Automatic annotation (TrEMBL):
Upper taxonomic lineage: Eukaryota, Metazoa, Ecdysozoa, Arthropoda, Crustacea
A Pfam family it matches: CBM_14
Domain called Chitin-binding type-2: residue spans: 27-89, 201-260
CC per GO annotation: extracellular region
Name listed for the protein in its UniProt record: Chitin-binding type-2 domain-containing protein
Recorded superkingdom: Eukaryota
GO MF, one annotated term: chitin binding
Length: 260
């Protein structure tokens, strides 16, 4: 570890001249103990400490030595070329994409959906595929259809996301009430969340099946208000999806990682 330098702010903060305004405002959120990269500055990180073991966290800010950045994977300050995105100074180059296997939908098993939420698009989903290099026909798991544009198995769009749908809410109060909030379970998961917001990605390495990954466009988060909990629907930044198994937002698998 490169150590922590004395904190000196070029632009003093409102209450403590050691910290810049961009570091302390808006305040970072602590959900568990540990050290975490600052979301707005790669050279800073913060530590969350539950000093009284009651679910209330004290937040401490630290700045890395000049020329270094905080690596969340290594849990220390490192030179930029050792850090991962987005703090690495190593240029990211996209590997060449292989030509996909020319598959087409089997006639009579495909349907086009006019989707308007979260944005307007057309989706061609097929129950079965025919590929010149494979036999017999391919098909997704029960309840899933093959998205001909994104080239992966997905659940059909919910009626509330279709154009012309009279949308009120995505879940009922009875379904929402089944979610349990606690300090140990701030992002509750259930089958209806998976059904509404999540897709299953089928992963391969050199055409060898390696497993599946479930990623979600939205997720629920519990927030403490006084002596009660409040449940809020949240989403990841654009281009990312939430993994309940890893408890974080991440980029969906690339075309190279997906099974054709």
């Amino acid at each position: 570890m490169f150590g922590v330098s004395a904190v000196k702010a070029a632009i003093p903060g409102p209450t403590d001249p050691r910290y810049p305004d961009t570091i302390v405002k808006p305040r970072v959120t602590c959900e568990k103990e540990g050290s975490f990269p600052h979301p707005r500055n790669c050279s800073w990180y913060y530590r969350c400490v539950d000093r009284m073991n009651i679910g209330y966290f004290w937040t401490y800010y630290f700045e890395c030595e000049p020329g270094t950045v905080f690596s969340d994977e290594l849990d220390q300050c490192v030179h930029p070329h050792l850090a991962g995105p987005p703090c690495s100074d190593v240029p990211v180059t996209e590997p060449p994409k292989p030509d996909p296997i020319p598959c087409t939908g089997v006639e009579g098993t495909c349907k086009t959906y006019e989707v308007c939420r979260p944005f307007k698009q057309k989706k061609l989903l097929c129950e079965k595929l025919v590929c010149p290099l494979r036999t017999p026909h391919l098909q997704c798991a029960e309840g899933y259809f093959f998205d001909m544009a994104d080239r992966m198995c997905v659940k059909p769009p919910q009626p509330s996301t279709l154009c012309g749908a009279d949308v009120t809410t995505d879940i009922t109060f009875s379904e929402q009430a089944r979610l349990t909030c606690s300090f140990a379970n701030t992002r509750p998961y259930s089958e209806f969340i998976s059904r509404l917001y999540c897709d299953i990605y089928t992963l391969c390495n050199n055409k060898i099946f390696t497993g599946t990954k479930e990623l979600c466009s939205n997720y629920y988060e519990c927030r403490r208000e006084g002596q009660s909990w409040k449940l809020e629907l949240r989403s990841c930044p654009v281009g990312m999806r939430f993994s309940y198994s890893e408890d974080r937002c991440q980029a969906p698998p690339s075309a190279l990682e997906l099974c054709n």
